[in-house]
C-alpha cells in the first residue's frame, strides 16, 4: 500500500493534459470532499440476485466484501485479501509489485493503495464452475464517499469461470466508485466477465478497471453494458502473454439526458499466434457524451498476430457528442490487424421504408436502434442477463 501510494503521488491526478482523460470533466470531482466509505448494515435484497446465481454470489457493500451475505460455491476458494495474503502471499505480493511498477493509471494505483476489504478468488486447476458467479456491488449512504472494491482472480490450468458483476443501491450525495478487477488466466483456462453497469445514481463518478494476463491457449472475454452516470470510465489493459491466447472485449452504452460513458482500451500482444477482437457500440440521446480510445500494441515477438478493433456510434440527440480514436502500434512484420470507427445517425431511407409498411416513425426508430444494439446483446453468454 505504501509503495502504491508513493507511485500514485508520482503519477498525480489526471488533468486535461493526460490524453486518455481529455474527454472527462474532472474539476467537479476534485472539488468534492469525500471520505472512504464504511461497510453499512444494509441487508441484501434477494430479488437482485439472479435465480441462476442463488448459490454462487459475492456481496460487496460500499467497497467491502461481506462474506456473511455471500454464498461461496464449494468448487472455489474465496477469502478477503487481508486473509489471503497469509496463504497466497507469494503470488499476491509478486502480482502487486509488478502492477505498481507497470501501472500508468492514477485511479488504479489509488485503488491499490486504498482498497478496502477486497477479495481473492482462486479457481483450482481443471475446475469448471457449475453456475456463474455473481459479484454484487451495493451502494448505500447519504454522505460523499469513496468506495474502493477490488477483486483478484486466479484461474488455474484447464479451469473455467463465468463472472457477472452488477451494481445496486441508492445514495443521495456525490460518490466515487473506483473498482479494480484483476485476473490471471493460466494455460488452457477460460474466463467470461459480464459487467452490468446500469442504474447508477446519476451523481456518481465510476472508474472501473479491468486488468488481465492471459497465458497459453487461454481465453478471456468481457461483455459490458451501461446506461452511464455523471461519469463512467472503463479502462481495460489485457496482455496476451503466450502463444494461442484469445481475447474478446465487447461493450454497449445507451445514454440519455447528460449522462456520460468513456472507454479506454489497451490490448498488448506479447507472443505469436494470438487473437484479439474488440467491438464497442454506443447510442447517444439528448446531450449525452461518450468517448472511445483503443490501442492494439503488437510487440516484435508477436508474429502471426490477428487483431481486430471496431467502434460504432449512433448519435440521436442534437446536442449529443461522441469521440472515437482507434489506433494500432505494430512492431512485428507478419501481422493481420484492422481497426475502424463510425459515427452516424439513423438512415432516413430505412425509416421511410418502414413507415411505408405501416410502422410509425417512433416505432421505426426504436426497431432500428434495437437492431444496432442487438449484435452486442447476442454475444452475452447468459440468456437471463440478455
Word description of this protein:
- With 386 residues, the protein is of the alpha/beta class.
- It has helices at residues 2-11, 27-30, 81-102, 106-114, 348-356, 361-377; strands spanning 35-36, 57-61, 64-65, 77-80, 119-123, 133-141, 145-147, 150-155, 160-171, 175-185, 190-197, 204-214, 219-226, 231-240, 246-255, 260-269, 275-284, 289-298, 305-315, 321-330, 335-344.
- Strands 1, 4, 5, 7, 8, 10, 12, 14, 16, 18 and 20 form an eleven-stranded mixed beta sheet that branches.
- The radius of gyration is 21 Å and the shape is globular.
- The model has no long low-confidence stretch (mean pLDDT 94).
Quick recap of the structure?
The protein contains six helices and 21 strands.
Report low-confidence residues grouped into runs of 5 or more.
none
* Strand segment tally: 21
Helix/strand structural class: alpha/beta
Count of helical stretches: 6
Give Rg in angstroms.
Answer: 21 Å
The main pleated sheet reads as:
11 strands, mixed
Shape: globular
Mean pLDDT: 94
Strand content: 35-45%
Order of helices and strands: HHEEEEHHEEEEEEEEEEEEEEEEEHH
Terminal Cα span? 39 Å
Helix content: 10-25%
Amino acid at each position: 500500500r505504501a509503495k502504491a501510494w508513493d507511485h500514485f503521488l508520482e503519477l498525480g491526478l489526471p488533468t486535461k493534459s493526460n490524453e486518455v482523460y481529455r474527454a472527462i470533466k474532472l474539476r467537479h470531482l476534485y472539488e468534492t470532499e469525500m471520505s472512504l466509505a464504511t461497510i453499512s448494515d444494509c441487508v441484501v435484497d434477494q430479488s437482485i440476485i439472479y435465480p441462476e446465481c442463488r448459490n454462487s454470489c459475492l456481496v460487496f457493500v460500499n467497497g467491502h466484501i461481506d462474506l456473511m451475505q455471500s454464498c461461496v460455491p464449494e468448487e472455489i476458494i474465496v477469502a478477503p485479501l487481508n486473509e489471503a495474503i497469509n496463504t497466497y502471499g507469494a503470488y499476491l505480493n509478486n502480482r502487486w509489485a509488478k502492477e505498481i511498477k507497470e501501472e500508468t493509471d492514477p485511479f488504479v494505483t489509488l485503488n491499490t493503495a486504498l482498497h478496502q476489504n477486497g477479495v481473492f478468488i482462486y479457481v483450482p486447476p481443471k475446475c469448471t464452475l457449475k453456475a456463474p458467479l455473481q459479484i454484487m456491488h451495493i451502494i448505500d449512504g447519504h454522505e460523499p464517499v469513496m468506495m474502493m472494491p477490488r477483486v483478484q482472480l486466479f484461474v488455474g490450468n484447464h479451469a473455467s469461470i463465468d463472472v457477472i458483476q452488477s451494481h445496486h443501491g441508492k445514495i443521495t450525495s456525490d460518490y466515487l466508485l473506483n473498482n479494480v478487477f484483476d485476473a490471471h488466466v493460466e494455460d488452457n483456462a477460460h474466463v467470461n466477465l459480464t459487467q452490468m453497469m446500469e442504474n447508477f445514481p446519476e451523481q456518481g463518478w465510476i472508474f472501473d478497471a479491468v486488468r488481465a494476463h492471459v497465458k497459453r491457449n487461454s481465453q478471456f472475454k468481457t461483455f459490458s453494458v451501461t446506461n452511464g452516470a455523471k461519469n463512467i470510465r472503463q479502462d481495460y489493459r489485457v496482455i496476451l502473454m503466450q502463444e494461442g491466447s484469445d481475447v474478446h472485449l465487447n461493450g454497449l452504452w445507451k445514454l440519455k439526458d447528460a449522462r456520460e460513458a468513456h472507454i479506454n482500451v489497451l490490448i498488448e500482444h506479447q507472443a505469436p499466434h494470438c487473437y484479439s477482437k474488440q467491438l464497442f457500440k454506443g447510442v447517444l440521446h439528448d446531450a449525452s457524451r461518450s468517448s472511445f480510445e483503443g490501442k492494439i500494441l503488437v510487440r516484435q515477438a508477436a508474429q502471426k498476430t490477428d487483431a481486430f478493433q471496431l467502434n460504432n456510434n449512433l448519435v440521436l440527440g442534437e446536442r449529443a457528442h461522441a469521440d472515437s480514436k482507434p489506433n494500432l502500434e505494430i512492431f512485428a512484420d507478419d501481422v493481420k490487424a484492422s481497426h475502424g470507427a463510425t459515427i452516424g445517425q439513423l438512415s432516413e431511407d430505412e425509416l421511410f421504408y418502414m413507415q411505408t409498411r405501416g410502422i410509425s416513425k417512433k416505432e421505426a426508430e426504436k426497431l432500428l436502434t434495437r437492431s444496432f444494439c442487438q449484435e452486442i446483446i447476442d454475444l452475452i453468454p447468459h440468456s437471463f442477463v440478455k
